[in-house]
Amino acid sequence: MKQVQVHPERCVGCMQCMLACATAHSQSKEMHRAIGEMPLPKPRVHVGAGLSGEGFPNRCRHCDPAPCLLACLPGAIFRDPESGTVLIDPDRCINCASCAMACPFGVIRYHQDWLAPAEKTIAVKCDNCIVRQQDGLLPACVEVCKTGALTFEESADALKRKTAVVARSVSAAVDQQFPPAAGVALLLEMKKSLHSLEDR
Amino acid sequence: MGKYDHRTITRDGQLLLQKMANDQVETVWERLADQTPQCGYCEMGLSCRVCAMGPCRIDPFGEGPQKGVCGADADIIVARNLGRMIAAGAAAHSDHGRDLVEVLADVAVDNAPGYAIRDQKKLLRVAREYGVETEGRNALAIAGDLAAAMQDEFGTRKGYLTMAGRAPAKRQELWKRIGIAPRGIDRETSEMMHRTHMGVDNGWQSLMLHGLRNALSDGWGGSMIATEVSDILFGTPQPNSNQVNVGVLKEDQVNIIVHGHNPVVSEMIMRACESQEMLTLAAEKGAAGINLAGLCCTGNELLMRHGIPVAGNHLMTELVVGTGAVEMMIVDYQCIMPSLGALAPCYHTKMISTSDKARFPGMEHHEFHPDNAARLALDLVRKAIENFSQRGETYIPVTPTPSVGGFSVEAIIAALGGTPKPLIDAIAAGKIRGAVGVVGCNNPKIKHDYGHVTLTKRLIEQDYLVVDTGCAAVANAKAGFKVAEAAAYAGPGLREVCQTLGIPPVLHMGSCVDNVRILVLAAALADALQVDISDLPLAGAAPEWYSEKAVSIGAYFVASGVFTVLGPMPPITGSMNVVNLLTSGLSDVVGATFAVEPDPEKAALLIQRHVEGKRKALGLPYRQV
Ligand code: SF4
Ligand code: SF4
Ligand code: SF4
Ligand code: SF4
Asked: Phi-psi region for residue B418, left (φ > 0), alpha (ψ -120 to 50) or beta?
């Protein structure tokens, strides 16, 4: 089963995944139109800043067992048996925020959505772009991510690759484990150095 | 042709794309696919890289940041970005103009062997316009003073541009009234860079107004100087027959391609190709001759003045090398993809860069200056001839299309019998509904040549006279619209006029700096009718634009009063305030606006609606569109 895999060391923080995700969950599916829609579509992935200001794309892990699912009293949160995706039923959600309290990753947001009853605020999070996948498309964030910070593949494959890289880097005894590109590494080095000035 | 007809409507393009795919050579289309989807912030003009507190971006969905670190909001950031695009475009055209003025200055002191004054009449006319004494003086002395006077226009000393005086009086008054009369060529570009520095002009409206002034300093300044000085040095174009598309390459001859914009280099190459010494050498090497062809606008410059064939427009520049039949490509500057140097080794083509300000990876650099140009041109042509024996298999899949070019304003007025009156009469009678400038580049985001050709076809069918320049002009020539017989494509009124005058329904007016010829023609029509340009039944269109220069051209068309339709959307959708100003608000300010319409069928309707509206306002017979 292919999953969205996150490789934070490759994230440049351009926030393209946020735009693509919001667009993919709009009515028109077209960015220039989507920004005029009511309610305004919003992203399900959120790029946060790490210790030195490097980007980190934060999205639902579709945990199993899922704390949010267990916490949802009205039973709005359920698991799609086929893909394992944790989904929220907008009609059942009562906007109680229990799921957000239970979620260890802070990936749930509350707002209106064109698929929910009008004017109703509901819990919203990543749905693995299940509709796009049915249409044979990649999840929108993966498609748009130009640096490879987001990939769509079997977890086992991703982990195997990572194992190989870790093994090689350990033998080379370098501290930069996954040098994605010289420019990115340089930028990160500069950012770290700048950040370290704060402690002087 | 199936496989590549989504990329280009041209047969040579489709066949060569297949060839390049077989050769496993990437082109601009593959690189676009690799880049897709492209950054939404940048597409919307919402990213700002102006300073090192940034870079910043504004989230158009309202979730993320709404202000840059400095506090600039979406309107300010979009306006700054667009302003800088105009500045870059104006700078490119104007610097091209400056290079020609330098040659003129060198000719005056006899320091430019091979160059000469080839249109004395124009030299005298322009010199008088600049207040240079002409009575009883020799041409070189006049040329020296004219060059000096023109060099002054680049700075700020005078405070006004001489050739802006060619605009109708009403237009000049309007510019002064709203404070956008251009004051110096470099000054306006420099001021734009100043205004868009962090913490200077943070009024999106005032930034956009200065954008218009900056563009005017190009249209009625830098570009106009480029065109006029080119005419003085190389001759004012007259109608001539020529051929276009990849089929102009010759199997049995040494093929040399000039690519870029400035005739300073290509004219010298042309003269070298014609020299007896080189022709003899070519014969010795077993070639039946030396075949010079152009690409992009330096191609248009040679086509306009000498009927030199043009092998293609912007998106054909890589494919032309794929024929394997090009011994040498000589480039100057602007619109030369840096991919070309890497592409050439897949074939035997020698790539040569020539400008001190334009370097390309994988190209041999031989710098042209007025004093060495004639000699260097011979050296390069010799190298090209020697490369003929290295040629492998060739693939020239089509035969060339005939076309007629060379319609300078002077040539059009001459074709009309010495005055614009017959054209005005035909417009007044409704035989010709109006005139439309179809200009600009190619852009792989829109099917190659589809925008230009479709729009032009629809317009001439409806009796609109089309004048074109740049890559649009090459597209229309390849489509066969530029021979007298093309009158058959025109509506009955336009067809009659074309047949009477023996002209095609689409008039090739030159390169992209030559868009100023359209301005001069528009001004002549306005003066004849004693109205402003914005009152005329005219429009402009850039259906496949890509470059910053095109943004400047569009802006000086609009600021001069010409309604202008763009194909691809410029990066401004991040600010609906800026969008609304450009597409409607400006009509109250300069009497014209932009429109954006990627579909050329719909663009044709927008233009017809606009022009018929102008006809109505002038009291001329009009149609309901
Ligand atoms: S698109 Fe990729 S690189 Fe850009 S913010 Fe998202 S995860 Fe990071
Ligand atoms: S907010 Fe909705 S989804 Fe979350 S726990 Fe409450 S009912 Fe469930
Ligand atoms: S899978 Fe879909 S919903 Fe989840 S982050 Fe990616 S684009 Fe957004
Ligand atoms: S000028 Fe302002 S918006 Fe632009 S990069 Fe600097 S801080 Fe950011």
From this structure: left
H or E segment and range at residue A157 = helix A155-172
Q: Say how far apart CA A107 and CA A115 lie, in whole Å.
A: 19
Q: Does any ligand 1 atom lie closer than 6 A to the CB of residue A72?
A: no
ipTM score over 0.85, yes or no: no
Report d(CA B82, CA B582) in Å as an integer. Answer: 11
For residues A79 and A60, what is the distance between their CA atoms, to the nearest angstrom?
Answer: 13
Instruction: Kindly identify which residue of chain A lies nearest to residue B63, measuring between CA atoms.
Output: A42
Nearest CA in chain A to B572: A32
What tokens appear for A181 in the block?
Answer: 């590109």
- The structure tokens listed for B286 are 């077993």
Cβ contacts of residue B36 below 8 Å, gap of 6+? none
Partner-chain residue, chosen from B35, B40, B573, that has the shortest CB–CB distance to A19: B40
* Burial (Cβ within 10 Å: 0-12, 13-18, ≥19) of residue A172: exposed
Q: What is the pLDDT of residues B180-193, one digit of tens each?
A: 999 999 999 999 99
SS3 state at A18 = helix
Q: How far apart are CA A102 and CA B56, in angstroms?
A: 34
How far apart (Å, rounded) are the C-alpha atoms in residues B9 and A23?
Answer: 32
What integer pLDDT is reported at residue B310 of this predicted model?
98
Tokens of B327: 């011994």
Check: CB of residue B564 under 8 Å from CB of residue B594.
yes
CA A110 to chain centre: 16
What secondary structure does DSSP assign to B336-359, as a single string? --THHHHHGGGSS-EEEE-BTTB-
pLDDT tens digits along A32-65? 899 999 999 999 999 998 888 788 999 999 999 9
Question: Residues B350-404: pLDDT tens digits?
Answer: 999 999 999 999 999 999 999 999 999 999 999 999 999 999 999 999 999 999 9
User: Within 13 Å and on the Cβ side, how many CA atoms surround B37?
Assistant: 21
pTM of the predicted model as reported, rounded to 2 decimal places: 0.90
Q: For B603-609, what is the mean pLDDT?
A: 98
Question: Residue A187 C-alpha to ligand 1 middle, in angstroms?
Answer: 16
Which listed ligand is nearest to A29 at the C-alpha? Answer: 3
